[in-house]
């Protein structure tokens, strides 16, 4: 319950107490503002798909294609317009076919006012119908390309996410290696004090500590770079702390067969949908190029008022009719347009065939990589465990004075190497899973 104090004067001591209380209350709020926000992979993918500039550009391309389709449609719809004119002119009646004795050679000047509504409608225009069909397929292609952009962004975010998780584990492993090296340095010094080890053993342990410090610095540099890359891919503030909620370790997922993966890719790869739409668009453009040789039929009409001035001697006038046009000779433009459309269609067919082969290659390579990296994870896990056991044995031998610390330092280096290989194998396996999902057109649904 708030306490309301009414006073006209506060002493300096009271002001200081109030300021201190305000600072204490504001402290947790300020700390909360700088606290890292934990993100899961689906959250970052959705954020990137909503805010990424490349995705916005792709969506704008869809809108552009739809506008071009609407323009093609408008050419087949009734055209309604209005016009008003007021002129002052002279006329030679001979140009109108009037040649009578006594008729002056020049009439006027006189005023002419005209205001009318005009209507026209294309009745028969096969080329424009084909152009409209091509514009519709262009919209389909733009939508498929936007979906392709979504997949590319989702895959990029997932790969960066895994890279950050691997970097975090690499930093933790480097710190553990440094702590272990410092413990072994302490052991070497104790053994030298006990007369069991020599100064060479201490120097060797100091070298190992220095190397592990360097490795830790490298790992911290790498994780900083990976975080920035993920923040940019997910459209996160670059200066905000970042925490990830996923785990790099995961139970091996069931790998589909090659036939299943290829069926999934053929049904979901946006690139295939885009190239199929582009093929249909090119075919429609070729039909339009051929149909430009065909006759076109249009209806037209206008109705308005003609007079000398807008307010004087007004008369209603109208005109209606039909026009039939047939191109006879265009200087080769129609043939050139048809040849260009045919070549474009052939290009799209070749691109489609190349893309189908590329999709199959992507799927088969991703499957092989997933299987191989899964085996690498098993081997790296066994290597890490064996390296840890080797270090324990070497440390016991050195502790009991049976041997110097050459084996200890060597085993320590082997353990550090095994830890790095294990983390790299885990990251490679998860990234291979991302690539397999992307090869099947399912990168947006990938989960660790």
TrEMBL record:
InterPro entries assigned to the protein according to its UniProt record, in alphabetical order: OMP_efflux (IPR003423), TolC-like (IPR051906)
Position of the signal peptide: 1-31
Keyword Transport belongs to the record: yes
GO cellular component, one term: efflux pump complex
Source organism, top-level taxon: Bacteria
Assigned protein family: Belongs to the outer membrane factor (OMF) (TC 1.B.17) family.
Name of the protein: TolC family protein
Organism for this UniProt entry: Solimonas fluminis
